[in-house]
């Protein structure tokens, strides 16, 4: 249930809960974050009541007690190309409906007042019931980031039955054709991709981007490989695994280039490259030398938890690799004791060679026993 503040800071203010919390309340989805809009106030009014300004691009304030964010009602006017070229107008004359009209989708353009009444000038409630993601106005086309947001919302809401309205998809295609997507910077693209990878239907994100043509602009490496990648990624246990499985057919060089362009965090970069390396280093019936080389490349001895995550990802991907044999071979090789070999008199370079020789011997035994 959405609870309104009742204290001196908000007394007499026209406050509304807007956006995602109202949508999720109607859909029966748990929510924790709430967005508040204040109509008819100035920045001076807010600071006088104890609110602390935090907004950089438009007037946003922290409530003095709850520390929730309250924004002044505002409108936006396109002033340049891309998703940053906007002039914000926040004045007491801006109405709630004008503020809601600048939002992306009808299901996000509803408000709730303190009496529990829903203000819904653009049909968001009906679209919630129909499970339709529909743009509020033609101004949707002014912000290419909304293409990624549409794809992320579908990834999150597809289990509830949501699909994109045909008119909205047509508008997204027109935005791509106009070159708007090319203005998106890597950080914002990755931010939306990562959120989608954590969504219940992550594959829907990439399917919608492909349907509107944006995927070819943002991740051209997936052209011709998307179907196989999507089929695999649904088995991924976590976001790094899903991305690694989606990109598994790219190869090491293409993956490295993509990682640099999108500035992937190390966790995602490593998992994807390890999957690619594993497929390059191993075949369906590897010998002990191959497995030992793979263990070295995966840093198997020093980072066992990372290796376990890789093996789980490879197993989920259904590749023609003997995962169970690899698990047993690695476990056997870990039985080699450098201290024991040192006790037998081995030192320096000779010790290193003996450790590797023993590991290969035990791997060979494990592979033979598993065959």
TrEMBL record:
* Co-factor(s): Mg(2+)
Occurrences of domain Poly A polymerase head (ranges): 15-134
The text of the family note is: Belongs to the tRNA nucleotidyltransferase/poly(A) polymerase family.
InterPro entries, alphabetized: CCA_bact, NT_sf, PolA_pol_head_dom, PolyA_RNA-bd, tRNA_CCA-adding_enzyme
The molecular function terms in GO held by this entry are: nucleotidyltransferase activity
Q: Which domain of life is it from?
A: Bacteria
Q: Per the database record, which ranges form the tRNA nucleotidyltransferase/poly(A) polymerase RNA and SrmB- binding domain?
A: 161-223
Q: Give the protein's recorded name.
A: Polynucleotide adenylyltransferase
Gene3D superfamilies for the chain: Beta Polymerase, domain 2, cca-adding enzyme, domain 2
CDD domains hit by this protein: NT_ClassII-CCAase
Q: Which organism is it from?
A: Kushneria aurantia
Alphabetized UniProt keyword annotations: ATP-binding, Magnesium, Metal-binding, Nucleotide-binding, Nucleotidyltransferase, RNA repair, RNA-binding, Transferase, tRNA processing
